[in-house]
Structure formats: structure tokens, C-alpha cells
Design goal:
Radius of gyration: 22 Å
Oligomer: single chain
Strand order of the largest sheet: 8-7-6-9-10-11-12
Number of strands: 13
Number of domains: 2
Shape: elongated
Structural class: alpha/beta
Strand content: 5-15%
Number of helices: 13
Largest sheet: 7 strands, parallel
């Protein structure tokens, strides 16, 4: 049984999020199996991130017209044809699997990452593909907080502190302050914006790169209780740049935080060239996608002592091998892909999924989503 953590979370069920130009599914869903009752079926792929299906199931528990299932990844191809909505989580959805989704109306993510979905194949089969905007749900804020947690863990030498406790030592290790550091946010999207807002009070210098600053929306800086001055990007970023500036900014930074989206252009972007451009002893934090980092190059940089520390909430393969050589270094911290897994964010996203299922069942326009096709 899942419980609400606060009145704020309770209130989140009643919040409304409207996507621009949502598609209109006017056709009702098909009869479910051999039952005489219309049922809209929602499939969560895989058993990891269990709160996603648990919270969604709880949200719709009083609506018998909605059924929420979660199945092991190996079983998805066999059952996919029985579902109207699929929450992909971290399962790849290629053309052959999509072709089995005979009654599917919507493929969506419990969050923002859709790099594993063949959007063209889904479009060819008349299936909409969508993500849940991270700025609306609190997912971006949750990830930003995790980035700070990981930064502090490296700066204060979290692993060494735990050893000192076990060895009954006091006053060691000697850590570092975040105050006075230069932080490079690589990828100034929703997570990067939320991170910059939270870093400002620490007294750091912030560098940031973004594909296009022209598309930067001033509404991103509306007051939310976090410090800005004039509601502009200049209040949060000391130096702005594009992709061509990533090596220059890396050479200035004490900490690099990877917040990029995963795509063909960004895969392996943190490679030997990038790592060599960083200051010797600088720290690297990744709260985006594991494959943004080149594994062999990162391992070499750790072995050589050039990279001062690595903290990551995501890995190259997930779940990550706990015996992997990278985890043997005392200056490496890893968390189990939980940056966005907070009560606040997951309750909001459960509401979005539940509302979408109810809207689809009623043949109403789908709201609360960002569609990519």
C-alpha cells in the first residue's frame, strides 16, 4: 500500500496540465478480452521503478474501466497486443515490437526519456508517442536536487567518510566546499535550469551550454520561491555557450554536470577529448543518461588519476554490475537511477498517466503530455 507524504502531495492529484494541441482520440477503445465491459488497459514495461505502476494503480483504483498491469520485460512482446497505453520505462521499443501492438493508441514515458522508442515506426502504426514534461511534474527539480547531492558527496568524500566511521576515526577526511567553485552545466534544459536555481545560493560560478539560446523561454524563470533577480537567464548563468564551447567550459570548471538529452549527436560525448579538456582533479556528475559517457575513456581517466571524481545516477547498462571496475575507486559514487524517483514527482506523473487513461477511455483529447509525433 502506498501512502501520501504530505498535504502538498495530496493536492497534486487535482492539478491540471494541458499539452498544446493534444490529439483527439474520438474512437472508443475496443472490448477488453471476453469481458462485456469496456476496459482501457495500461501496461508498464518491467518490474523496475515499481512506484510508477503502484502509484498509477492507486490513482485509478476506483475506476473499474481502467486496468493497470506490469509485466517482466521478457513477457512484453507476448502481451503487448492486449494494451491501449504502454509506459515504456527503460525498455527499447523497436519496429518489430511496435508491430505487435495491435490495439495500442499511445506509447509514453514515465518521465522524459524516449530515446529507446522508434518514433517513426510508431507513427506508421498510428500510435502516438509522448513524454511527461519534467518541469510540470517536479521531475526536473528532483533530478537537480540529486545532482547537488552527488556533488556534495564527491566534495566531502562520502565513501571515505563511511570508512572513517567504521574505523572509529574523527576529523577525517578533509573535504571541499561547493562555495567558490565553478560549475559547468552541460545541457541547460529543464534539469539544468532547476539546478542553476539551486546552485546560486551556494556562491558558485555557473557556466552552461545549450543547443539554442534563442529558444530559451522566459517563463522558465517565473517565481517559484527560488532566487532569481530579473526573470532572465543572465541571473542564473554567468557564461553561456553552445555545443562548440563544451571543451572551453570544461577547462574552466571544477565540476561538470551532464544534463544532456540522449541522441545520436550526444552519445559518448564525454570521451577522451572531453575528459582531457577538463581540469586535472575536476569532478564529473551525470544525472542524464549513462551512454553520454564513453565507458573506456572514463575508466582510463579514473585509473590515471586525472579525473578527480565521478558521481552518476545512471549507467551504461542498467541495472549496473556491482562488481564493475569503475565502482572500485574510492572517488566514485553511484546511485540506482533514483534522481527523479521522489514522492512529489511520482505522484504527479501517476496522475498524468491515470488522467490520460481516463481521457482515452472517454474518447477525449489527451492532456498533460508532450507529443513527439
Amino acid at each position: 500500500m502506498f501512502f501520501y507524504g504530505s498535504s502538498e502531495v495530496l493536492n497534486c492529484w487535482s492539478s491540471e496540465y494541458l499539452a498544446p494541441h493534444p490529439p483527439d482520440f474520438s474512437r472508443k477503445v475496443e472490448m477488453a478480452g471476453d469481458s462485456d465491459q469496456r476496459i482501457t488497459r495500461v501496461l508498464f514495461c518491467g518490474l523496475h521503478f515499481p512506484a510508477s505502476q503502484g502509484y498509477t494503480r492507486e490513482y485509478v483504483e476506483n475506476n473499474p474501466s481502467i486496468k493497470v498491469d506490469d509485466v517482466p520485460l521478457d513477457d512484453v512482446p507476448r502481451v503487448i497486443g492486449n494494451y491501449d497505453i504502454c509506459v515504456v520505462k527503460n525498455m527499447p521499443f523497436k519496429a518489430d515490437l511496435i508491430s505487435r501492438a495491435s490495439r495500442m493508441k499511445l506509447l509514453m514515458q514515465y518521465g522524459v526519456g524516449l530515446e529507446g522508442v522508434d518514433v517513426n515506426a510508431a507513427t506508421e502504426h498510428g500510435i502516438k508517442v509522448a513524454r511527461i514534461p519534467g518541469d510540470a511534474t517536479g521531475n526536473a527539480a528532483s533530478c537537480a536536487e540529486m545532482a547537488i547531492y552527488l556533488m556534495m558527496g564527491l566534495l566531502r568524500k562520502q565513501n571515505e567518510m563511511q570508512i572513517a566511521v567504521k574505523q572509529k576515526k574523527l576529523g577525517e577526511p578533509i573535504g571541499e566546499t561547493l562555495f567558490g567553485k565553478t560549475v559547468f552545466i552541460m545541457g541547460f534544459g529543464n534539469i539544468g535550469i532547476e539546478l542553476a536555481k539551486r546552485l546560486r545560493p551556494f556562491g558558485v560560478k555557473i557556466l552552461a551550454t545549450k543547443r539554442s539560446w534563442d529558444s530559451y523561454l522566459e517563463k522558465s524563470f517565473k517565481s517559484d520561491g527560488l532566487p532569481t533577480q530579473n526573470g532572465s537567464s543572465d541571473d542564473l548563468v554567468d557564461e553561456k555557450g553552445g555545443h562548440e564551447h563544451i571543451h572551453k567550459f570544461a577547462s574552466k570548471a571544477d565540476i561538470v554536470v551532464c544534463c544532456l538529452s540522449m541522441n545520436i549527436q550526444t552519445a559518448g560525448i564525454v570521451n577522451k577529448t572531453f575528459l582531457s579538456s577538463m581540469k586535472k582533479g575536476a569532478l564529473l556528475v551525470n544525472v542524464a543518461r549513462g551512454r553520454l559517457l564513453d565507458y573506456e575513456d572514463v575508466l582510463f581517466s579514473l585509473k590515471s588519476g586525472y579525473l578527480g571524481g565521478l558521481a552518476m545516477d545512471v549507467a551504461w547498462t542498467e541495472p549496473f554490475d556491482p562488481d564493475d571496475p569503475i565502482l572500485k575507486f574510492p572517488n566514485v559514487i553511484m546511485t540506482p537511477h533514483v534522481a527523479g524517483v521522489t514522492e512529489h514527482a511520482y505522484r504527479y506523473m501517476a496522475k498524468v498517466v491515470g488522467d490520460v487513461a481516463l481521457q482515452l477511455h472517454a474518447g477525449a483529447p489527451l492532456t498533460g503530455l508532450e507529443f513527439v509525433n
